[in-house]
Design a protein that fits this description.
Length: 500
């Protein structure tokens, strides 16, 4: 292995004559050398820059070199240290090596002895760096709360590493259940704000008339029920991270106030007159298609550009390959511990079913399935028969579980949706409804296309939920992103029908 022709070295030697001699020895090896005589001077230098090599005398006028070695190992572990002394003993050499020194030289020594030691030290340093780079290039199975080694997830991990220390706003997109909040936490904890607050706010779960107060806080008497001053999420997240989940659900009027806050860092509490300034890093997320929301006029374009600086797209579980098996093994161990069960593994058939299913609810649905298996069964092996009924149909066809339900629900729209109930109907009830329909089926004009029936049911659910798509999706037992995709498809189908 070739040694770098140039490296930096800090020499700590109280003898001026020996210091000059050792400096020349090191320079002949290609080092750029800084020489100091006292321990305090060495610590001052190290606080300002870190050399590749530290040649450290043990006996110094103001402190022991061993004390400096311990501080270096604590604060600058990447520095290679060679200890030197005129009073060498075996015990002292052993102690210094145990404390982290690479080697121990007894004065006096010649240029050749120092040269061999320096070359060996630099070779070790290069090997350590090479191993570290190789380890960083390997797929990570676990990363900041995520589990997965697929290429798609490795891309997510690298993006998080790149943006963690930046103040640039991050916009996370992905289907429901893909781990958007986990991603937001990872960005926060991987960066230089990790010791500061992380404040999460779900814009879809807060009533329209309260969300401004939740973000900015309010003063006493600002509105009915405001019995005291209250700090908002913006204040609580000062010097930390503010995570705005389901940002596309935010009212347009509040979006304009949020835009000013992002631009200036300045805001006013509801009912207040005093402006406050904070330092906040913004991370936003949505399961919608943000630019589509902008085109439809539901999301401000200028706010989009402020928030959508660094986009991160989380892949759906069906696109993550063998990550499913990594996740189910982790979840099985976790739920074993929580529920006091003894499951150890899955049968080959169970693994095949789990991996071939397309998981419309993504990781959240997978968690529910494994939890259900653990709670309802007692064994050491998870068998295919223990999986929920949805796995009994053709593997990988989860949409087949949804379409019949929606088609049946459309015939019962008023009773189901007006009562705010999920349109899920069991197979027996569904078959009875279908059997009672022949008289209508005899009339061709009474039969409508399945896509149109599905469209009517979904639109009725959205209307019943006051336009809240995620809430409607939850009641229909599908993901919100599925609804957005279907809306685009309906426009195309409607156009084709019109042409015909």
């Amino acid at each position: 292995m070739e040694i770098s022709q140039s490296f930096t070295a800090l020499l700590v030697e109280d003898s001026m004559s020996l210091g000059a001699l050792y400096t020349e020895y090191l320079r002949s090896e290609g080092a750029k050398v800084t020489h100091v005589n006292h321990g305090e001077d060495a610590l001052t230098e190290l606080a300002q820059w870190q050399p590749d090599l530290l040649v450290l005398d043990i006996k110094l006028p103001d402190m022991s070199g061993m004390e400096i070695l311990q501080k270096v190992q604590t604060s600058y572990p990447g520095i290679t240290v060679i200890m030197i002394t005129a009073h060498g003993t075996i015990d002292l050499a052993v102690e210094s090596m145990k404390s982290g020194a690479f080697d121990f030289l007894v004065k006096p020594f010649d240029a050749k002895r120092l040269s061999i030691t320096v070359r060996n030290a630099l070779k070790q340093r290069q090997l350590v760096n090479l191993v570290e780079r190789y380890e960083q290039s390997l797929p990570k199975e676990n990363y900041m709360g995520f589990v997965g080694e697929s290429l798609a997830m490795q891309t997510v991990y690298k993006t998080i590493d790149c943006v963690a220390n930046s103040k640039a706003s991050v916009f996370i997109v992905g289907e429901s259940g893909t781990g958007k909040e986990v991603c937001a936490h990872a960005i926060h904890h991987a960066g230089n704000r990790s010791e500061k607050p992380f404040v999460a706010l779900n814009c879809a779960s807060i009533p329209k008339d309260l969300i401004e107060s939740e973000i900015f806080g309010h003063t006493k008497g600002a509105f009915t029920g405001a019995v005291a001053n209250r700090e908002g999420a913006a204040s609580r997240a000062n010097r930390g991270t503010l995570f705005l989940d389901e940002i596309c659900e935010m009212d347009l009027e509040l979006q304009s106030k949020l835009l000013r806050f992002i631009q200036t860092g300045v805001f006013q509490k509801v009912g207040g007159t005093k402006e406050e300034k904070v330092d906040v890093r913004f991370v936003s997320a949505t399961n919608r298609i943000p630019w589509e929301e902008v085109k439809q006029g539901r999301f401000r374009e200028d706010l989009f550009y402020r928030l959508h600086v660094i986009p991160i797209e989380l892949p759906p579980l069906r696109m993550r390959g063998k990550d499913v098996l990594l996740l189910v093994n982790k979840l099985l161990k976790e739920y074993n511990r929580e529920e006091g069960k003894q499951f150890k593994s899955f049968t080959a058939e169970a693994k095949k079913l789990l991996q071939s299913y397309d998981w419309p609810g993504n990781v959240r649905q997978l968690q529910n399935v494994i939890r259900q298996v653990v709670v309802l069964n007692s064994s050491d092996i998870v068998e295919a028969s223990m999986l929920p009924a949805l796995f009994k149909s053709e593997p990988g066809n989860s949409q087949a579980q949804i379409r019949p339900v929606i088609a049946i629900a459309s015939a019962n729209q008023p009773s189901v949706l007006n009562n705010h109930e999920s349109p899920a109907i069991d197979e027996q009830a569904g078959s009875q409804n279908l059997q009672s329909a022949p008289s209508e089926a005899d009339k061709p004009e009474a039969i409508i296309p399945l896509w149109l029936s599905e469209k009517q049911t979904i639109e009725a659910a959205i209307e019943q939920c006051d336009g809240n798509v995620p809430k409607a999706a939850a009641l229909l037992d599908i993901s919100a992103s599925t609804i957005y995709r279907k809306r685009q498809g309906w426009d195309e189908l409607q156009g084709a029908v019109s042409e015909n």
